[in-house]
Amino acid sequence: MATTLVLWDIDHTLIETRGVGGEIYADAFQAVTGHPLKEMPALSGRTEPVIFREALKANGVTDTGDLYQQFAEEQARGYADRIDELRRRGRALPGAEDALRALAERDDVIQSVLTGNTRPAAEIKLRAFGLNSYLDFDSGAYGTDDDTRANLVKIARQRAKAAHGSRFDAAATILIGDTPNDVIAARDGGARVIAVASGSNSTSELAEAGADTVLEALTQTGQLLTAIHGGQHPK
Predict the structure, then answer these.
(1) Contact at 8 Å (CB) between 43 and 9?
(2) Per-residue pLDDT reduced to its tens digit, 179-224
């Protein structure tokens, strides 16, 4: 029976789209609003609906009430249409697949995602780099589930319990991300947090935010497994 729930952030933790994601966002924004995306709010560690509302405001667009749903569908379609380009220009970050594979070999671990992305976008991004097969997307939480990222921890726990029959408390839930916002979400949501300095934040910034463990990269697979399991061997 699974005793540990590992929740992965996606962008700059597992993958980088290297500009493709931004282009798809801008195209989807213009398609549903009729306005070019001239100004983009900060993305790091935030949920898609919040980012979209701020993008509307920053670009002087009035929401008719259903724009986000239209945008989400258009964005997912953009990722599906450009998945080959995403593979060419983007990448899985060093060590990401090795880390996912190592955890997938354990019978006591459920791996899923905790992300500001929509589920369709999350699945396509990870499929582009062959990482989707390691993850149980039904046990994850997504930007469309709640505006507040910390609340996604509880949602993921509930879904994992429903899917696998195990209860995951704070000690048994680990969020892995690359930003101080990921750290705050984990701590406020009641989870342990492993921060990886694979994005724009340094190891010292992630430590200052309160991460339980900070890694320079996912290539430190041994240290990652020790932080999760305390050096236990796979069951």
Answers:
(1) no
(2) 999 999 999 999 999 999 999 999 999 999 999 999 999 999 999 9
How far apart CA 15 and CA 19 sit, in angstroms, is 12
Q: How many whole angstroms separate alpha carbon 194 and alpha carbon 186?
A: 9
Q: Are 16 and 93 contacting, i.e. CB atoms less than 8 angstroms apart?
A: yes
Q: Are residues 96 and 209 in the same domain?
A: yes
Same domain, yes or no, for 80 and 8?
no
Q: Tokens in use for 132?
A: 């989707």
Report yes or no on whether pTM surpasses 0.70.
Answer: yes
Look up the domain containing 112 and give its range.
4-16+91-229
pLDDT tens readout for residues 1-29: 899 999 999 999 999 999 999 999 999 99
Q: Are strands 91-92 and 15-16 parallel, antiparallel or unpaired?
A: antiparallel
Q: How many residues does the chain have?
A: 235
217 CB-near residues (< 8 Å, 6+ apart): 93, 94, 95, 196, 197, 198
Question: 117 and 209 share a domain?
Answer: yes
The closest alpha carbon to 6, from 219, 214, 186, 231, belongs to: 186
> Could you tell me if 221 and 132 lie in one domain?
yes
State the Cα–Cα distance between residues 44 and 192, nearest whole angstrom.
20
Please determine, for residue 130, whether its predicted confidence score (pLDDT) is greater than 80: yes
